[in-house]
Amino acid sequence: MAGHSKFSNIKHRKEAQDSKKSALMGQYVKLAQSAVKMGGSTDPKLNPKLAQVIESAKKSSLGVETIKKLLERMKNKEYKDIMIEVCGPANSIFLVMVDATNQVSARTEVKAAMRKHPVKVSNSPSSLHLFKQQGILYVTPDPERPNLDLEEIAIECEAEDVTKETNEEGQEVIKFLCDPARLSEVKTMLEGRSLTVENFYEQYEPLAPVTPSEAEQKEIDSITEKLENMDSYVEMHTNIEA
């Protein structure tokens, strides 16, 4: 799995319905984070983009409670995103991002969620070299400029690649890839060309995805569900084949 959803892709070999639900939930969490980052407020009354994300989540009956918990934590400046590594069956790796005050509390919460599973929990991720970190930006197409040379724009903004995709709502979006260290810089350059950046984030793509057996997949599904149900859960990336 390489992140979450339409803007951030969860890739578990689950049953189709469970996989879609998990992906959508991660999507809304990511969109809410970006909305707060771009709008500067955790109050949907003061942040129209955040209000739009919450309304979309309500329509999908997914992610609303997770978003509410996230917003409450984001009001507390002492909280920060912390990555915890979980190693599970079939050499599976879960890079779990949680909101916590420090590394110890983050690891403690993850270990508590995993107490019934045969996994190893580490607060110092040692498997990042097995993933490719990728900056991703989604741009809303401009109907008044349908013939934009996207490849030229990508080169000018120092993006690595650009493609057109269709999101979960059937809308066309433009996806730019870039060095994650330059994510904010590329966003600024795109906006400088009067393009609307709808969402941007960092994603971890597995370099060698693993394929669990059916029995291992059941254990992985249970692990995934418990991690996603943690109060401090933000997002997750795994090396599990879709």
Automatic annotation (TrEMBL):
Region of interest called Disordered, as start-end residue ranges on this chain: 1-22
Domain TACO1/YebC-like N-terminal: 5-76
GO cellular component: mitochondrion
Signal sequence annotation: none
Subcellular location: Mitochondrion
Short name of one Pfam family: Transcrip_reg
InterPro entries linked to this entry: Integrase-like_N, TACO1_YebC-like_2nd/3rd_dom, TACO1_YebC_N, Transcrip_reg_TACO1-like, Transcrip_reg_TACO1-like_dom3, YebC-like
Family assignment from sequence similarity: Belongs to the TACO1 family.
Cited PANTHER family: TRANSLATIONAL ACTIVATOR OF CYTOCHROME C OXIDASE 1 (PTHR12532)
Protein name: Translational activator of cytochrome c oxidase 1
